[in-house]
Predict the structure of 3-phosphoshikimate 1-carboxyvinyltransferase.
Amino acid sequence: MSGHAGKPRPVQSARNGALKGTVRMPGDKSISHRAFLFGALASGRTRVTGLLEGEDVLATGSAMRQMGAVIERDGESWVIDGVGNGALLEPRNVLDFGNAGTGSRLTMGLVGTYDFTSVFTGDASLCSRPMGRVLDPLRQMGTQVLACAGDRLPLAIRGARVAAPITYHVPMASAQVKSAVLLAGLNTPGVTTVVEKVMTRDHTEKMLEGFGASINVEVDAMGVRTISLTGQGKLNAVSDFVVPGDPSSAAFLIVAALIVPDSDIVIENSLMNPTRTGLIETLREMGADIEVLNPRLAGGEDVADLRVRHSELKGVIVPEERAPSMIDEYPVLSVAAAFATGETRMTGLDELRVKESDRLAAVAAGLAVNGVPHVEGKDWLTVTGTPGGRGIGGGRVATHLDHRIAMSFLILGLASEKPVAVDDDRMIATSFPEFSGLVERLGGHIEPAG
Ligand SMILES: O=C(O)C1=C[C@@H](OP(=O)(O)O)[C@@H](O)[C@H](O)C1
Ligand SMILES: C=C(OP(=O)(O)O)C(=O)O
């Protein structure tokens, strides 16, 4: 089974002088996965620049190679020769997605309507995450789920000779489930429809359109989105695809600058798609000084540079309906809240329980060992802040193979009174291999812990 070989690598951070300087964000993880998937499926050659070279994304690239695409790194870009829609080959080996929910779930949708068998596995974290959310709609389309216990990885699936199109109401706010069903629809005759009550990140819809799929999105007065895809059409390569920088990675640097006194940094190239900017909105409500500079379009997406200065933060109530636009940012928001005046209340967090770790429990445990007052509910969390970070820190945080838990608590340590250690940092390379290098560039320090 996959995972990081060798021993865990504990690291720590300690109270730091002001962060200063300019850094450029590496590519967005969600869009990078999709660039490999759609480039590999389209007819012709797609050149991708700005791709995130994180382990999660590279695992998606390896899976698509196994199914017939030719994918090569060429200087600063990646060149993908796709197979053509409907023409994937049966993978000869197990598809190992490591730590990646997005890669495994989207690929499962994509191959779930092919009349061949594919076997999926991943690391201990991924093997504990629910896959029924993708397998259920696939079963409705005629996919057989073989060799699988409790709808968890490892598992094997085989599509029907001819898949059946469905209309699927996504039961939870999940861009992965929405995307998996749409990708299953690509190799299905007729129209596959996905209905989502709450809007989640829309990269799949936008990119499918860009690659020439026949896709239509309707939004009703209540904001319910109905997305219809006509299957078995042609997908065309995009000669020059640009991946914007990852706002979920920028989040760590934003919060670092807000909590470390006298900091003043510029983060270049952050995706500003409104389905991804909930954290910035929330931090601004808390009093954060975040200036949006040089807004522009890159790869069909809004992108900007962000100037962030140390700020006196105050606690806020984060509305539940904002959760999808900042779902991966709650761990680091909790760190910002630990330095705010008063209480920050976050609700609608049930999806955090099924990420790389149970993030609600992992955040609460990390706050507890570092002396940050908080209350954990079934799907909510309150954090009471200590401006200046007096008395907090001193703990060693259990990361449970979760990159965002590791990075969040290393940021906490940069401003807390006592150092903060995390039990392992190796999994940070799944989403943000440049993390410690960029923190160093801004003048922060992360060092091995005993
Ligand atoms: O579609 C995507 O690229 C993602 C969707 C989200 O997951 P869910 O769909 O499970 O909410 C998010 O947490 C993940 O990091 C990336
Ligand atoms: C939830 C995440 O990713 P995934 O579901 O792809 O593992 C994440 O990156 O925070």
Q: What stands out?
A: The chain has two domains: 11-27+244-448, 29-242. The longest helix spans residues 29-41.
